[in-house]
Write a structure and sequence with these properties.
It is built from 6 helices and 2 strands, in the order ααααββαα. The longest helix is centred in the middle third of the chain and has 20 residues. A two-stranded antiparallel ribbon has the order 1-2. The chain is mainly α. It has one domain. α2 packs across α4, α3 packs antiparallel against α4 and α3 packs antiparallel against α6.
Length: 159
Amino acid sequence: MKKPLREIKQDFQDFLQNMPGRIDRLKEFLGVVAFSYEPAEIELVENFYRKYIGAENDLGLSENELDKLIETYIGVAYLWHFGGEWYLIEKTSADKYGYAAIIKYGGKGYPYVAVPPLGWLRQIRNGQRDEPLRRMFERWISYFFENPEHELEPVRNIQ
């Protein structure tokens, strides 16, 4: 059964409010002082996620907490490179109902679709993701470099 929209909205506000803390916690787990959000680091984070999904771990994280931790990092990395803003998918008929997504990325005139980082993590968890996140980011970074008409406005407010 789906959560009521008011609960979903509260969860989303909590998600946004707790981003800096989750980023700090991930830095501690990885032994990193500051994130660069570069492809090699994205690969490090994806490998960390793959190591701990569905496994007993000594991190003290539930499956949901691990997802939120990595979802936050991947979303912030996306904003760091391509701009945009967080958005809550509220349409109850959507298969991603309640997901935090990124919209308005890619610069003026870029035809974006809502991008939910948790969806990518679900693909990894279910063995349905063929392309590593690092490669996806590299491909998009290259696309925007080769298409400067889409003037990116990176959001770099969380280190």
